[in-house]
Design goal:
five-stranded parallel sheet, 316 residues, single chain, TIM Barrel, 10 helices, alpha/beta, three-stranded parallel sheet
């Protein structure tokens, strides 16, 4: 059961929806005010900045703003702030709120349902989530969180069945309000390998539930990894939304050491010229999300958008 759309006729290289991520913005200001609780003028500043960088779309990350926990009037303020700068909130990404997190799975499930309702109310077109959990103390301390071990989904049929059941529940809810659900690939979860991720989508069995093949999450790991070509070949037929970033990776032939560092889309290990063409041939017509960690995150996202639009010129 393949999840990609069947036509790209509605998009050109210049109109294809490419969104900015929110990593470049502080979650809490110098006065201790959370972005969630900031005045609408602060939100407008964010949309103005992404617009200056050439973006017309943004992904709302719940690490920064949780629409499920905003009053209706505040949701309207958020939308008005975006419209003020001709920026569309195209997606909501709920992260580190796994529906099978020990001690919080049911709480996170209820939050995901409220987030889907908020998306529907606000006209946000994609609900994106995954099975990754909050950082461990070691990850919090690390320069790059992916260099420390994070939580791991158990090799347990019952827990996996619970994950499938709860994702299916969310998918059915999202389908009722006209939303696709995208599940982000992430290490040590049931979405942590190409085969396991595809199997999970097949087990859920809903046409509106697909993959976010953020395979850069996997190539950055300081351990042996699957070949990025094989991972994309397996997952792209199920892709309905796409977080894009890249890393320079190096490793010893004997497996004694591994290293990675964030890069632009063009200069990292993954050849996006190849995989974007492959995705278009398969019929992918979803949103691309530019993501970057470290340094001038927003600046690199803008560079990557320009690069991607160049690739799309030759692919559409």
């Amino acid at each position: 059961m393949e999840k990609t759309s069947t036509s790209t006729a509605g998009h050109t290289a210049q109109t294809w929806p490419i969104a900015a991520c929110m990593h470049g913005f502080d979650r809490v200001d110098q006065h201790g005010v959370k972005l969630q609780d900031a005045p609408s003028e602060k939100w407008a500043d964010i949309f103005a900045e992404v617009a200056r960088l050439g973006f017309t779309a943004i992904e709302l990350a719940d690490s920064h703003i949780r629409p499920a926990d905003l009053e209706p009037a505040r949701r309207k303020e958020l939308l008005d702030a975006a419209r003020q700068h001709d920026v569309t909130i195209v997606s909501l990404h709920v992260q580190r709120q796994s529906v099978i997190q020990p001690g919080r799975g049911e709480i996170n499930l209820a939050y995901a349902h409220r987030s889907i309702d908020a998306c529907a109310e606000m006209g946000i077109g994609v609900f994106s989530t995954g099975l990754h959990q909050p950082f461990t103390p070691a990850q919090e301390k690390a320069l790059w969180f992916w260099t420390a071990q994070g939580p791991t989904d158990p090799d347990d049929k019952e827990t996996r069945a619970t994950a499938v059941s709860r994702i299916k529940e969310l998918g059915s809810h999202a389908n009722d309000v006209g939303l696709p659900v995208a599940l982000e690939m992430y290490e040590d979860t049931y979405l942590g390998t190409a085969d396991s991720a595809v199997q999970l989508i097949e087990e859920v069995g809903l046409d509106n539930v697909g993959l976010n093949p953020d395979i850069a999450n996997l190539i950055r790991l300081h351990r042996p990894i699957e070949d990025w070509r094989e991972m994309h070949a397996k997952t792209l037929p199920y892709t309905n939304y796409w977080h894009m970033k890249n890393y320079v990776r190096d490793e010893a032939a004997d497996g004694s050491w591994y290293t990675s560092t964030p890069s632009t889309l063009e200069t990292g290990l993954i050849n996006y010229r190849q995989v974007v063409n492959d995705a278009i041939e398969l019929g992918f017509d979803g949103v691309f999300l530019m993501e970057q960690y470290g340094g001038d995150s927003l600046g690199v996202c803008a560079t990557n958008q320009d690069y991607l639009r160049g690739l799309l010129e030759g692919a559409v």
